[in-house]
């Protein structure tokens, strides 16, 4: 387009004699171009004139004009065409070489600015225009003046560094890598000043990140040779620093060279100095020697972090040398006992004239000690699997270094000891802050969960097994007294460092610090009353952590008279974080003042808390305070109420604070924290008067249920359940009726967790306020009945619905028994044509549970009539065709009747009802498979309630059917009967371990209805006592059927064996063990599966240990079915908490990983071709085993990360990503977990999995394009996106060029863009 006239005028003005006009013209022209080029481009002639005008201003006599030109040019060049950009970049590069010395830095600055402003698409033209010029400036003599040449090389190196950092991955200039590398290495010679050499090192580091492996190998060889041949300490130090910079930039890629680098650097750090006089670095050039060793240790630190496993062979030597160097202090002379050398107060950093140290003004040995400590910290962080060794070798020496005289090094000692402390516990990713409501919001709002929520002290951090060694060594080294002395140090930094270390101990090992708190009190008080806000804040955090995990309340009660006046003063501190933390401390501390809330509060404690209530009331009413202070005031108020809310002396203060609390509850900003506090109060066992706040709080929360946020609706429902449960009788029924109307719309299966909370709220309201029954019947009942017929109903939601039907019985005038029974017996929804048999079975099972719960709680006549009616239905259908083969409604009715009768039999004894057992057995011969299966399950349920009678008959039936099977030579009908009887036995044992749902707390009043109704209510039977006499009869039958041809038979037998193993291991173990060694593969499979079922039910570890060798042998069995069962058992053993110690041996874990690797290999012999007529289909018989192996591997990784999370897993992932889609999904999960636990292991072999990842994604995208299995493929692509995101978040992943190229390629695929949007950020 033609340029506007004002652009030409502004270009002219840029050459005006007035510098102000030149300045303003440049700024105006820049803005005009920005506005103009958003719609259309400038023509080439105008663009050339504009660029020339700005280049001219770069040589302007005014510094302000030059600086403005630099800024403006960076903004506009990116908006021009490629030709103009090439001209500008080339011109600036030439000016860096040819311009006057006074303006050369301006051109270089402008060039670097343009490099970072230009888009990625300009990388090629930038490299073509700039790299040759910069290489020329580095290699050639441009001027006759050596000083000028050096300045040019310095600027060119600086520009090249920024260019390689921005566009180094562009392959266009890769042919120039060798010349650039040689040129930069030449700049490391001693002929150049240190500033040039420093820039060259930084540039070599960036260059190494984009080098090929061959070129990187050559570069490292040259650098190591120069290290060996360096003739001066400064030269050696420079080359060592360069190796370290390369190592930090290339990351894991330097691992293959560590066999040469590590021994060299360790030798430079000094030979074994044990027994010597620390004179290795005490020569005339001690400072240079210190620099050399410091750089060696700094490089080794990066190697330890980035190449963890490659450094393992050198760990022992590295620990020994690092400890020796951490003590290296040639100017320190020990004058006696170490403990006597530690001075207090202002003398802690001073030494007398005769004393302990020479003048250290020129002493640089502290650099060596500091670098050695950082190496030890890196070792502790990167090798959690060697903590036992580290704790034994490092704890005492590091504690002894607390006497370090140099402050900077002393702070590093604190940090290193802190790393030892942090490594002693397993750190969770989930937040555990005092205001984290959501961490408990997901808990089920039952009385048990409320008790857990109400706990008066936080759970202690989970310690690693090696923590005991550290605690023992830490105490033996007398560490805490040494640390206490540093709290009295005159240096602020030292006090801060010591306090930070104490805070780390309080956070990770609070029980070890608690006994020392009284001795720490004077220094803590001094810190809390001091003028340094950071010290005050750290002291408050330390006290909060200790109070949150208190063990001995008397310790905190003894400190309360001193601390509480200080806390009250700090509540009004001008720094909001201190005021907020003071409130947190008060909220946590109050639990220790009244550890037993059944006892009255001591009178002295009342005196400390009285002023706190007044302060809390003020904080709750103030509007002009920080948000964090408001939230912490609510937190403190909730915990104070929960602990001392029943104390009469505080009643007036509490009443005055309740309405301001309600105002905070209504405030959108603070209501979430207020809800958390309200739930804390409801969870308290105390009787706390909340009458002024109850109605407004419930009414407001009811109105908030329509909030669009699901998480907030969940929080509101959770708190409402707690409020109604505790204070429901005090609330007017009209308020609760409106609440029921508001929550009913969410009683649906689209969100079962919300539905569960709504059902709890409805049931709790009905139980505590009977006047709400009409509204429940009119508004809620229809939704509940609809939810009962959901095929996905399960878990806590189902329990809540059963609880509901147990309560509606108490209101027959609103819930007529006959009507409720009829509505629950309606099976028509399960008979629709679109309803599958599995879905129908789920619906009928739910309805049967609801009917049983309703009937058991009903009056005697209703209960008896229901049982008789069911028995009549069962008797009439025994062995007959029900209503014709097409009449599915009648079949479903019989199926529901038998299941409901069985569920009822779990809760009452059916042996008193004539014909009950015969009715179940008679249905075994029904022509309908659904009825036969239901009768087997129902008989198992009924046996649980009549153990003394039904169990004996059931075992006898199994025994007699076994004899008839042998006599009839395995007749089909007899076999079916036998299978059904075994299924019943399985249900008996399974129901015992699952436990019969206990009556809900609110139903206690109805608990005795069974006796009144004339039906014998039963207590939880002791199955072991009932079953033991029959075990010897049952076991031979189970063993015989362990080799059945039918897999369903073997599964039932395995489950029975596993369940009985829990009940009578003495009898079952000798029977089960021989099955592992039999020649029949089916029997071995059954035995291994039995072990899996036993482990899943929390089998005693001693029982499992007796069968451990058999399980290990099964993992190497030659039969696929046995190995598959063994792998599944291994997975269950890993994920079951009671049995994880079975695999605790490290060597066993390593052997398991290697065995699993064999099972993940594709065996072509197991792939067979099936002829299906029109086409042929390949069947992989080894796939189930491979899937089981990867599943077991994922479980091993989660349970034993210290041993399993290694680079070896990347070999599994490489193989699995080329396998079946199901295996690829498992590999993505393993890769994600490994990236979180040990990112270094992922980075070291990341390049290896790029190709299989690429192929797997390409295949999935192709399937998506063709419309094949769209839902499954979409789920897989979402999983790939999350996996790639996790790997991409590892900083070193950006140094893996193949992976970055893969991301760049996949980001261009429009289909994949719909599943992830992080790639645009990845390319910046």
Automatic annotation (TrEMBL):
<dbReference type="InterPro" id="IPR013932">
    <property type="entry name" value="TATA-bd_TIP120"/>
</dbReference>
<dbReference type="InterPro" id="IPR011989">
    <property type="entry name" value="ARM-like"/>
</dbReference>
<feature type="repeat" description="HEAT">
    <location>
        <begin position="1107"/>
        <end position="1145"/>
    </location>
</feature>
<dbReference type="InterPro" id="IPR016024">
    <property type="entry name" value="ARM-type_fold"/>
</dbReference>
<keyword id="KW-0677">Repeat</keyword>
<comment type="similarity">
    <text>Belongs to the CAND family.</text>
</comment>
<dbReference type="Pfam" id="PF25782">
    <property type="entry name" value="TPR_CAND1"/>
</dbReference>
<dbReference type="Pfam" id="PF08623">
    <property type="entry name" value="TIP120"/>
</dbReference>
<feature type="region of interest" description="Disordered">
    <location>
        <begin position="431"/>
        <end position="461"/>
    </location>
</feature>
<protein>
    <recommendedName>
        <fullName>TATA-binding protein interacting (TIP20) domain-containing protein</fullName>
    </recommendedName>
</protein>
<feature type="domain" description="TATA-binding protein interacting (TIP20)">
    <location>
        <begin position="1148"/>
        <end position="1306"/>
    </location>
</feature>
<dbReference type="InterPro" id="IPR021133">
    <property type="entry name" value="HEAT_type_2"/>
</dbReference>
<keyword id="KW-0833">Ubl conjugation pathway</keyword>
<dbReference type="InterPro" id="IPR039852">
    <property type="entry name" value="CAND1/CAND2"/>
</dbReference>
<dbReference type="GO" id="GO:0010265">
    <property type="term" value="P:SCF complex assembly"/>
</dbReference>
């Amino acid at each position: 387009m033609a340029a506007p006239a004002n652009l030409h005028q502004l270009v002219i003005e840029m050459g005006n004699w007035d510098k102000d006009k030149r300045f303003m013209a440049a700024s105006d022209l820049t803005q005009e171009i920005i506005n103009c080029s958003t719609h259309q481009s400038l023509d080439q002639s105008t663009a050339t004139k504009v660029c020339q005008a700005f280049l001219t201003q770069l040589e302007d006599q005014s510094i302000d004009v030059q600086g403005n030109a630099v800024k403006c040019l960076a903004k506009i060049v990116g908006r021009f065409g490629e030709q103009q950009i090439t001209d500008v970049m080339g011109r600036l590069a030439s000016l860096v070489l040819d311009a006057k010395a006074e303006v050369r830095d301006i051109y270089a600055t402008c060039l670097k600015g343009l490099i970072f402003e230009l888009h990625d698409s300009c990388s090629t033209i930038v490299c073509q225009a700039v790299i040759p010029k910069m290489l020329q400036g580095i290699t050639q003599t441009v001027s006759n003046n050596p000083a000028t040449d050096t300045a040019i090389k310095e600027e060119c190196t600086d520009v090249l560094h920024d260019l390689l950092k921005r566009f180094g991955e562009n392959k266009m200039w890769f042919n120039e890598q060798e010349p650039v590398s040689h040129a930069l290495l030449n700049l490391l010679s001693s002929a150049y000043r240190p500033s040039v050499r420093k820039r060259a090192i930084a540039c070599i580091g960036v260059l190494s990140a984009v080098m090929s492996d061959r070129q990187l190998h050559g570069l490292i060889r040259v650098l190591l040779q120069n290290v060996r041949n360096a003739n001066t300490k400064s030269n050696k130090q420079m080359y060592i620093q360069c190796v370290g910079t390369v190592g930090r930039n290339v990351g894991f890629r330097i691992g293959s060279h560590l066999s040469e680098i590590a021994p060299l650097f360790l030798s430079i750090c000094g030979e074994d100095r044990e027994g010597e006089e620390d004179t290795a670095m005490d020569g005339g050039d001690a400072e240079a020697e210190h620099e050399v060793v410091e750089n060696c240790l700094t490089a080794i630190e990066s190697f330890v972090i980035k190449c963890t496993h490659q450094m393992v062979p050198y760990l022992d030597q590295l620990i020994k040398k690092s400890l020796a160097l951490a003590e290296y202090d040639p100017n320190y002379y020990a004058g006696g006992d170490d403990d006597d050398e530690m001075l207090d107060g202002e003398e802690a950093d001073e030494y007398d004239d005769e004393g302990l140290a020479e003048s250290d003004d020129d002493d640089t040995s502290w650099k060596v000690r500091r670098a050695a400590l950082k190496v030890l910290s890196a070792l502790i962080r990167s090798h959690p699997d060697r903590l036992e060794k580290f704790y034994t070798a490092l704890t005492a020496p590091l504690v002894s270094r607390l006497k370090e005289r140099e402050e900077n090094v002393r702070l590093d000692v604190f940090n290193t000891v802190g790393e030892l402390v942090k490594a002693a516990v397993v750190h969770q990713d989930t937040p555990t802050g005092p205001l984290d409501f959501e961490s408990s919001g997901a808990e089920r709002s039952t009385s048990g969960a409320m008790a857990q929520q109400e706990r008066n002290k936080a759970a202690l951090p989970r310690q690693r097994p090696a923590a005991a060694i550290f605690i023992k060594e830490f105490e033996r080294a007398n560490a805490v007294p040494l640390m206490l002395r540093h709290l009295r140090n005159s240096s602020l930094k030292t006090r801060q460092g010591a306090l930070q270390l104490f805070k780390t101990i309080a956070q990770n090992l609070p029980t070890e610090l608690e006994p020392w708190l009284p001795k720490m009190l004077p220094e803590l008080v001094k810190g809390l009353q001091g003028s340094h806000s950071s010290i005050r804040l750290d002291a408050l955090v330390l006290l909060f952590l200790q109070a949150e995990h208190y063990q001995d309340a008397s310790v905190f009660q003894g400190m309360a008279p001193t601390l509480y006046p200080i806390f009250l003063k700090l509540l009004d501190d001008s720094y909001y974080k201190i005021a907020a933390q003071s409130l947190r401390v008060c909220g946590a501390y109050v639990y220790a003042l009244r550890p037993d809330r059944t006892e009255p509060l001591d009178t002295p404690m009342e005196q400390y808390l009285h002023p706190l209530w007044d302060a809390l009331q003020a904080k709750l009413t103030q509007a002009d305070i920080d948000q964090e202070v408001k939230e912490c005031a609510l937190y403190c108020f909730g915990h104070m109420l929960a602990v001392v809310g029943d104390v009469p002396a505080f009643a007036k203060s509490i009443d005055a604070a309740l309405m301001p609390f309600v105002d905070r509850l209504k405030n959108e900003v603070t209501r979430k924290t207020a809800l958390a506090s309200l739930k804390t109060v409801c969870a308290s066992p105390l009787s706390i008067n909340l009458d002024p706040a109850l109605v407004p709080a419930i009414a407001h929360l009811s109105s908030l249920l329509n909030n669009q946020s699901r998480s907030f609706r969940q929080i509101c429902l959770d708190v409402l359940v707690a409020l109604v449960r505790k204070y429901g009788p005090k609330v007017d029924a009209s308020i609760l009726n409106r609440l029921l109307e508001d929550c009913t719309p969410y009683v649906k299966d689209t969100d079962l967790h919300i539905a569960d909370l709504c059902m709890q709220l409805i049931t709790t309201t009905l139980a505590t306020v009977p006047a709400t029954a009409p509204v429940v019947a009119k508004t809620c009942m229809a939704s509940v009945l609809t939810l009962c017929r959901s095929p996905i109903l399960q878990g806590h939601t189902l329990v809540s619905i059963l609880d509901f039907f147990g309560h509606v019985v108490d209101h027959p005038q609103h819930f007529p028994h006959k009507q409720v029974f009829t509505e629950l017996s309606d099976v028509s929804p399960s008979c629709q044509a679109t309803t599958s048999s599995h879905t129908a079975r789920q619906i009928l099972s739910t309805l049967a549970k609801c009917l049983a719960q309703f009937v058991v709680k009903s009056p005697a006549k209703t209960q008896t009539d229901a049982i008789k009616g069911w028995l009549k239905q069962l008797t009439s259908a025994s062995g007959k065709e029900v209503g014709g083969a097409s009449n599915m409604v009648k079949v479903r009715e019989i199926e529901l009747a038998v299941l409901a009768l069985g569920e009822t039999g779990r809760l009452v004894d059916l042996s008193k009802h004539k014909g009950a057992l015969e009715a179940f057995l008679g249905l075994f011969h029904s022509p309908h498979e659904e009825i036969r299966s239901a009768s087997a399950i129902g008989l198992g349920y009924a046996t649980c309630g009549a153990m003394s009678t039904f169990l004996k008959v059931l075992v006898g039936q199994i025994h007699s059917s076994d004899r008839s099977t042998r006599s009839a030579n395995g007749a089909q009908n007899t076999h079916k009967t036998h299978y059904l009887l075994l299924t019943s036995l399985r249900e008996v044992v399974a129901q015992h371990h699952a436990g019969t749902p206990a009556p809900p707390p609110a139903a206690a009043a109805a608990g005795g209805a069974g006796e009144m109704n004339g039906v014998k209510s039963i207590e939880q039977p002791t199955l072991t006592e009932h079953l033991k006499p029959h075990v010897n009869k049952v076991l031979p039958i189970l063993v015989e059927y362990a080799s059945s041809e039918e897999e369903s038979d073997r599964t039932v037998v395995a489950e029975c064996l596993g369940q009985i193993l829990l009940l009578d291991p003495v009898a079952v173990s000798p029977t089960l063990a021989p099955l592992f060694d039999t020649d029949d593969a089916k029997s071995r499979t059954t035995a291994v599966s039995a072990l899996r079922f036993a482990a899943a039910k929390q089998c005693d570890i001693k029982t499992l240990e007796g069968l451990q060798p058999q399980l290990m042998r099964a993992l190497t069995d030659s039969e696929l079915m046995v190995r598959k069962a063994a792998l599944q058992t291994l997975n269950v053993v890993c994920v079951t908490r009671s049995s994880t110690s079975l695999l605790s041996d490290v060597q066993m874990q390593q052997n398991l990983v290697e065995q699993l690797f064999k099972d993940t290999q594709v065996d072509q012999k197991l792939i067979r071709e099936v002829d299906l007529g029109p086409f042929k289909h390949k069947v992989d018989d080894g796939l189930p085993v491979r899937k089981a192996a990867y599943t077991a591997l994922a479980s091993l990784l989660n349970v034993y990360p210290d041993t399993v999370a290694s680079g070896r897993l990347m070999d599994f992932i490489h193989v699995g990503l080329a396998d079946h889609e199901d295996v690829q999904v498992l590999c993505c999960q393993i890769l994600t977990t490994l990236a979180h636990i040990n990112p270094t292991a992922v980075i070291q072999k990341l390049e290896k999995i790029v190709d299989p990842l690429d192929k797997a994604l390409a295949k999935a995208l192709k399937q998506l394009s063709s419309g094949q299995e769209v839902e499954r493929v979409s789920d897989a692509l979402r999983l790939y996106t999350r996996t790639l995101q996790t790997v991409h978040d590892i900083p070193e992943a950006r140094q893996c060029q193949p992976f970055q190229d893969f991301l760049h390629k996949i980001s261009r695929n429009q289909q994949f863009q719909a599943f992830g949007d992080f790639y645009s950020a990845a390319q910046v």
